[in-house]
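In this section we walk through a basic example: taking a raw amino acid sequence and producing a predicted 3D structure, encoded as discrete structure tokens. The instruction is simple. Fold the sequence below.
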Amino acid sequence: MFTKIIMNTVQVKKQAFLKEACFFFKNASVYAEEGDLQSCAGLILKALDKERRAGGVGPQVLHLIKTI
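The resulting token sequence is shown next.
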């Protein structure tokens, strides 16, 4: 039961990060079309950071060891 709650929380956090990344990528596209490449690049970096954070969400190895 506890593991299931953790996994649901992980999925929610991961989805939130990916949603933010999508938002930044879409805005970057708008700025790129307008020719504002500096703003576009900044938004792409923010989006990539959100994707990286989404990949790192979840129980860490030490947390798993402590609960066992």
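Looking at the output, two observations stand out. Residues 2-67 form one domain. The chain has three helices and no strands. In the next section we compare this with other chains.
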